[in-house]
Amino acid sequence: MQEVTPQEGLARVQGGALLVDVREQNEYDEVHAQGAQLIPLSEFESRYAELPQDQEIVLICRSGARSGRATQFLMDQGYTRVANLQGGTLAWDESGLPVDRA
Predict the structure, then answer these.
(1) CA distance 45 to 5
(2) Contacts by 70-79 with C-beta closer than 8 Å and gap 24+?
(3) In angstroms, rounded to a whole number, what is the distance separating the alpha carbons of residues 55 and 71?
């Protein structure tokens, strides 16, 4: 599984990748990486087909564990352009990258 740092993740998003947050709605509402689309892990298996297979996808959660599971799930479904963001939203925020807060 490919993992990227927050800075690499941001660069990929700026280059056209889709940033997908797999936390739950209440966590997302509190703070999330700017521009992240929410598909909670609890709904991921029923909603993953909403994600394009022809676009790079960077997955993010709080610390990287749930997004790692989602990344592996997408790979198991045949997605090839996926990466997990190391350290999740905590690392993204600590790196000073843009976030939206409640």
Answers:
(1) 25
(2) 70/20, 70/22, 70/41, 70/44, 71/1, 71/2, 72/1, 73/44, 73/45, 73/48, 74/48, 75/1, 77/48, 78/53, 79/51, 79/53
(3) 14
d(CA 35, CA 79): 21
**CA–CA distance, 80 with 75 (Å, rounded to integer):** 6
DSSP letter for 97, please.
Answer: -
Phi/psi of residue 21, nearest 5 degrees: -95, 125
For 7, the token pair is: 């800075």
Length in residues, the chain: 102
Active-site amino acid positions: 61
Q: What is the pTM of this model?
A: 0.95
Give me the residue label for tokens 């925020």: 93
Which tens digits make up the pLDDT trace of 19-51? 999 999 999 999 999 999 999 999 999 999 999
- Residue 33 structure tokens: 């990486």
